[in-house]
Amino acid sequence: MASAEIVLSAENLTKRFGDREAVSDVSFDVRAGEVFGFLGPNGAGKTTTIRMLVGLARPDRGSVRIRGLDVARHFTQAMAHVGAIVESPDLYRYLTGRENLEHFARMLPAGAGGRIDELGAMVALSERLDDKVSTYSLGMRQRLGIAQALLGEPDVLILDEPANGLDPAGIREIRQLVRRLAAERGIGVFISSHLLSEIEQTCDRVAIIHRGRTLAAGSVRELSARSASDRVRVRARPAARAAETLSAFGAVETTTPFASLVDDGVGDGDGPADGVVTARIPPDRVPEALRALLSQGIEVFTVERPSSTLEEVFLEITGGETV
Amino acid sequence: MRFPGLVENELLKFAKQRRFRVVVLILVALIGLIVFAQSRARERFQEKDWRVETQERMARIQNWLRDGRMPASSRRWARFELGRLQYHLERDMDPEAVSGPLFARGFANASSYLLLPLLAIVFASDVVSAEFQQGTIKLLLTRPVGRARVLASKLVAQSLAITLTVVFGGIVAYLFGGLAYGWVGWDAPILTGFRVGGDVFDPSTVRAVPLWQDTILVYGLAWFATLCVGAIALLTSVLLRSTAASMGTMLAALIAGTILPRLASQWEAQKFLFVTNLPLPDYYSGSPPPIPGLTVDLGAAVLAAWAAAAVLAAFIVFIRRDVLA
């Protein structure tokens, strides 16, 4: 995947409103066939960045390229490769779904009138295509917005908070659709969200934006590994004594009786003495800590360094500010 | 190229919104009401037979002409009047009564101040601001079409809608007028081309034309004035991004235009305001202008200048401004 063509690239995007910098030096690349997540709390500068990506706002500094075409200089050619939903799926409510699609098909160089039924089926709107959009639910409008974005067979799909206002089933539907578009059609998908779980489940790579700056970027796994830091999880018996011993090497965070965790057939029947201790021990002191446990006759079943969730990464990077 | 498709899009938006139907209803209801009210008022003055009266007047004029002591200009007028009375008598029409065609022409005069500009504002105020209010501007301006072309398609569509409204107004006026006052009389001679230069009445430019020709001219002027109002309303729509605010601003301007000349006719510079120049058909037909120095030519030029400046400003702002709403 690393060798796939870069279809969307932002370089040092900066946007000022008055003397406040809403977006500062944001850079990233999105490749064909990947789903790229843009994660940040509300007000972090996600939508402003997206507005610059699609040419609605002019960056004060930096540039956006879509398949190598500078959006500021070659707007119409660049936009021919992009489908987008910015902020919310706003379509003409007094028109039917089909009329909306026909409207936007007429704005495309090739015209795409023949694909409307196909796209309607793809986003599961065939039945309602001839109803007015004002009668649609938010989820249906979101799907119609995606159908609109796909009219021009884009190489880049930009979705701003696609999960907003959707129920879990709706979110899952969108997620599956997005993954399919990336996998089957090789579309580079850019998704912004303030929901960690959504990005984690949908995206291949992530950039985290906070107060207008990208704080970290990489694959979901890389980022998780990065903040895994010094957390070690040890399953031992008896757990209480293990915790006591480990506390000499680093702070013990939790001690959980194993019975409350998954029963994997090891040490069953031994009751509450068996448990999992989570402690923060620097990597170079782990062998020493293990020796101490063993020398005291404490049984050790597993030792693992858990990869943290994006949530933990995020908390760490933003200094504890919740998403 | 794709431009007709863009105009089609904009016309579709006009047609599918309630606005268009409301405008049609307003026109029909208003014209119907005027005709009804006028015909009621007229019934009371039918005392003497107009045929006898007309024949008496024709005889009087013929006597004057035979007399030979009239100045040339009056002679011209007398011949015209004689022809006009003759025309009406031959067609069994009361020369002093309103005919369907005459009513249709009068509608253009009466509506170019307020009604037609109002309808233009109803269309144009919405053209850009509605896209902002519905959020659809974000889609409209991220398609592979330049902003200039998007706005141009809107301007063309709006001008088409205004043209349609003026034509429709004329047709409805003729239909109602015809029902109430009879359908014939399109080629009745009419005096036109009065110019009031200062206090001197200059008869040299006056000529007789058939009513249909005069009607086309008057509607052309009303249409032109209405288009210009539409162009200015497009600018307020672009600037204010709110339909209500844009409509309010334009309405205030229109109302100011009807009040100003009455309350402060000495202030001559107001003839360079667009609102004081809207009654172009009146200035053409020769009613004394409310402000000294106003003529059709000047009025048309002032309106055109306002419209051109408004369109230019609208394009510059629309193309350059970030869409953050």
Describe it for me?
The complex is a heterodimer of chains A (323) and B (325). Chain A is an alpha/beta fold. Chain A contains eleven helices and 14 strands. In chain A, the strands form three sheets. Chain A has a six-stranded mixed β-sheet with strand order 6-7-8-3-9-10, with helices on both faces. A four-stranded antiparallel β-sheet of chain A has the order 2-1-4-5. Chain A has a four-stranded antiparallel β-sheet with strand order 12-13-11-14, with helices on one face. In chain A, a hairpin with a 2-residue loop joins strand 9 and strand 10. Chain B is mainly α and 325 residues long. In chain B, the strands form two sheets. Chain B has a two-stranded antiparallel sheet with strand order 1-4. Chain B has a two-stranded antiparallel ribbon with strand order 2-3. In chain B, strand 2 and strand 3 form a beta hairpin. Chain B is elongated. Chains A and B meet through helix 2 and helix 3 of A and helix 1 and helix 7 of B.
Strand order of the largest sheet of chain B: 1-4
Query: Which structural class do the helices and strands of chain B define?
Result: mainly alpha
Task: Report the average pLDDT across residues of chain B.
Answer: 85
Query: In oligomeric terms, what are we looking at?
Result: heterodimer
Succession of helices and strands of chain A: EEEHEEHEHHHEHEHEEHEHEEHEH
Fill in the keyword field for this structure.
heterodimer; A: 323 residues; six-stranded mixed beta sheet; elongated; B: 325 residues; mainly alpha
Concise overview:
Chain A has 323 residues and is α/β, with parallel strands linked by helices. Chain A is built from eleven helices and 14 strands.
Topology of helices and strands:
The complex is a heterodimer of chains A (323) and B (325).
Chain A: E1 6-17, E2 20-31, E3 35-39, H1 46-53, E4 61-66, E5 69-70, H2 75-79, E6 82-85, H3 97-105, H4 116-122, H5 138-150, E7 156-160, H6 168-185, E8 188-193, H7 196-202, E9 205-210, E10 213-219, H8 220-228, E11 231-237, H9 239-246, E12 252-257, E13 275-280, H10 286-295, E14 299-304, H11 310-317
Parallel strand pairs in A: 3-8, 3-9, 6-7, 7-8
Antiparallel strand pairs in A: 1-2, 1-4, 4-5, 9-10, 11-13, 11-14, 12-13
Chain B: H1 3-16, H2 18-42, H3 50-67, H4 72-90, H5 100-111, H6 115-134, H7 137-140, H8 147-181, E1 189-192, E2 195-197, E3 200-202, E4 207-210, H9 211-240, H10 243-263, H11 280-285, H12 296-320
Antiparallel strand pairs in B: 1-4, 2-3
Helix pairs in contact in B: 1-8, 2-8, 3-4, 5-8, 5-9, 6-8, 6-9, 6-10, 8-9, 9-10, 9-12
